[in-house]
Write a structure and sequence with these properties.
The protein has helices at 12-26, 33-47, 52-64, 73-80, 83-88, 98-107, 114-133, 135-149, 155-160, 183-213, 220-233, 242-248, 258-273, 282-296, 301-313, 323-326, 334-341, 343-351, 358-364, 387-402, 413-425, 431-441, 457-467, 472-479, 483-497, 502-511, and strands at residues 9-11, 255-257, 444-446, 518-520. The chain is an all-alpha fold and 526 residues long. It has three domains: 33-237, Hypothetical protein af1432 (Orthogonal Bundle); 255-442, Hypothetical protein af1432 (Orthogonal Bundle); 457-520, Orthogonal Bundle (Arc Repressor Mutant, subunit A). Strands 1-2 form a two-stranded antiparallel ribbon. Helix 2 (33-47) packs across helix 10 (183-213).
Length: 526
Amino acid sequence: MASPAEGTHVRLAELVAALSIGIDLGFGQPMEHVLRQCLIALRLAERLGLDEDESAAVYYTSLLINVGCHSDAHEQAKWFGDDIAMKAGKYDHDVRSIRSALSGLRMLGAGRSPLQRLQIAIDFALSGHREVDTMIADHARLARTLGAELELPPSVPDALGSSYERWDGRGWPGELGGEDVPVASRLAQAAEFFEVANRVGGPEAARELAQERRGTQFDPAVCQAVEADAEAILSELDTGGTWDEVIASEPLAIVVSGERFDAALLAVANFVDLKSPYFLGHARAVSDVAAAAGARLDLTEPEIRTLRRAGLVHDLGRLGVSNAVLDKRGPLTGGDWERLRLQPYLTERMLRQSEALAPLAAIAVQHRERLDGSGYPHGLPGSSISQPARILAASDSYQAMREPRPHRAARSPEETATELRAEVRAGRLDADAVEAVLGAAGHRVPRRREGPAGLTRREVEVLQLLARGLSNKDIAERLVISPKTVSNHVEHIYGKIDCSNRAAAGLFAMRHGLLPEEEFLAPVPA
């Protein structure tokens, strides 16, 4: 198997740009929408006379500005049916306008029966509107967290934390306005909307948008630049070399390798896993098991390293699948399955343009293929499926069975082993890969119950269930305590870990090793 050399490194711009393609998918936008908005923001930065450090903040803020918007897709789908369709309407109206509010109300309960839609509307009026109103500010806070985890210059997390503030002070969280909003935030936000306006209606539409929102949502100086020079600012944005142009335009080349490369991949993987409470910690767990299984099959150290990294990125394409499908409790329709089958392809599409990430994409795209040709996305026969991909397929299958899903509880180790071996007998999974995975999984143990941040054992149990999306009532039934006790625990948990919603609690749980609920312990060498 071809694998990267020991000193594999990647420009951080490549990893962030790859992630940005997933952001496109999550907003129902054409691929490279975010890359184009990055170029627009840099051109605006040049016209405003920003220096290299300021331009670097503009660059990374533009690529990451909406990275937190999938974190509560579970809740978005609960209220509006299809989280991607809901976010796709972001650019139709000023989000503070009555028309935007009415558009959102029309989507309440989309895809449900009339009676269900009525109940959802009532629930939304009673409590849901408050939950939704805090989402945008939470997105910015989570984006700021990722910027810090990627060790970007401090100006970038600061700008990401203010990504949704407005010039008129009516943004989110509504603490800043005018020139107090970081310039990188102002340029990134404006470039995002100008990219859509230009793609739909050309430079004249961008000018009209600048005139309409000048001094309200957008910085007047930015709008003035667009009004004066729209053709130049918005020209040649889709010439087929957008990726290369964006990577070449990075003001400060940041390169990561070794453990920092791994840490960056893990940070991104954890963020993607936030999309659904059923997948919290899934990528890291699959990565650990796959690497241990690879060692049992005598892969070399570079091959194991590549396999471990492929495990971290194997599900990045989930960003392009609606939670109306991912979190569906009933049977999936044919259309649902078609959307799911796109996931490995989307992962490959996100990663393949980077020389350093392409080897990971080549493994990840095959992890849903099956030896009998029944898998996807390409229906490859066994002879075309690489050994690392066979190991990753068995690892992903194992971990998925050990986790809860919308339609079933987590399966026991015994049930999982039986089902995996049945897949081998049916000719779908590789026998050696499955036995290596089960051997490695024998070293998985329940995580300790004592928690970080002063969490008690009971609070850890509540946090794990809360992060999985269970209601207070469901948690009470699961732990055989009263809903009032659960409510008290949740209040204490949020105070101790300094967060206020499920997504942030889920990220805390993953970052501190509380999810998934088992950890992998490598065998002690003889």
